[in-house]
Design a protein that fits this description.
CATH topology of the largest domain: Jelly Rolls
Distance between the termini: 77 Å
Number of strands: 25
Strand content: over 45%
Number of helices: 2
Strand order of the largest sheet: 14-13-17-11-23-20-19
Structural class: mainly beta
Radius of gyration: 24 Å
CATH class of the largest domain: Mainly Beta
Shape: globular
Largest sheet: 7 strands, antiparallel
Number of domains: 3
Amino acid sequence: MLTLRKLTLVLIIAGLSPLALADEGDTTVVITFAQELQNIGTREVTDSFAFPNPGIAFNEVYMVYRLDCPGAPGDCDPWDRTARLSVVRQLTDTTSERIEIARVITPYDITGGGGPGHCEWAFDMTDYLPILTGSVSLLSFVDTWIGGSQGWLVTCTFYFIEGSLTMRPYRVVNLWDIGYVEYGNPDNPPEEHMDQVIVDVEPFAEYASLRIWTTGHGQGNTHNAAEFSQKMHGVWIGLDYFEHLLWRNDCAQNDCSPQGGTWQFNRAGWCPGDRVYPWDLQDVAVTPGQPIDIWPTLQAYENLCRPNNPDCQSGVTCTDCNYNSTGHTQPGYITSGQLILWTSQDVSTREQQSLPTEFVLHQNFPNPFNPETQIAFSLAKPGHAQLRVFDVQGREVASLLDRDLSEGMHRVRFDGAGLASGVYFARLDFANQSKTVKMLMMK
């Protein structure tokens, strides 16, 4: 009898369809992106796959992410870069969102003799059960700039083990998916890209878990940020604050070796040739039927070595003030986050979607304000939202939001510093409708 691993290898070697379903006892195997070549011309590949039906109960799901070189030594990308796997969830007829479910850092030079030939890592996918049923659209992204026949061969194999869960996930909420946020530039603060999110909680929810995927990149900056710098990352959940040191001191201890270069060095979540471990907050308390506020934060930091710093002098404050794509690269973080809601109750799909029934723009708070206030709104369905602020003459003074959003509640911070005291109007445009609230700033 074939083991699951042998079955997987047989299917791949046989050159079967990128999708294969097979059962061994109570386990279902789903193979996706079977040896999919990804390089500069195919950095993003999206395809749909048939996953188990929602009616089947599973108590465990895991996925093996595998990278192979396209050919004999010298054909894989020698550089350490990010590779991400995401579920693509449709929001409207023309818009969608990416929910990251796995991330690895590609190896640093495994070509030549003595290399491992391929590398693979296992991920627990049980939290993502609600979005891994039926027809699922997956996006495989590999940040590679190698072309021709070089690059990586990507294979993602899912294993669904049948059984019951006393407490099970029923909803995955995409909080943010920031492909890259610059760190340390006062002219482009990361806070402007990390919105506070309000999530509606169904009456049958019993608790939640928060998962945040983050890796730091960039070197040659102040504190050698962000790849080689230990910085605190935080998140507000309601009135509770949690912190996490994004750092790994075990980069040399992975099975994808030997590698070339300095892959053994400790890094900010970025270990070449290894999987990325998310920051998981378990057993997050929720009040059934009441929304929960989530707001990510970053440790205060200024990169004095950035090109737009007028005080940066080569050889004095920094050895290099210009990003050169080699020894001095822009510091930043690649980050995404999700809230997973759990229940022990048997709930229907209709009940799971107990979200706002109206398009509502709430009154800002505080009001009057000086100089900051919060503007909250609820969306009955996903779509493109635009939030702007106008003065009494109808002139636009701030554009706070202009992008696709999921259904539910959202909150945006408005900073009126630099504006005169007086009356302002916050206007939300959504689904060919507009709503406005009056705000008063008193300095």
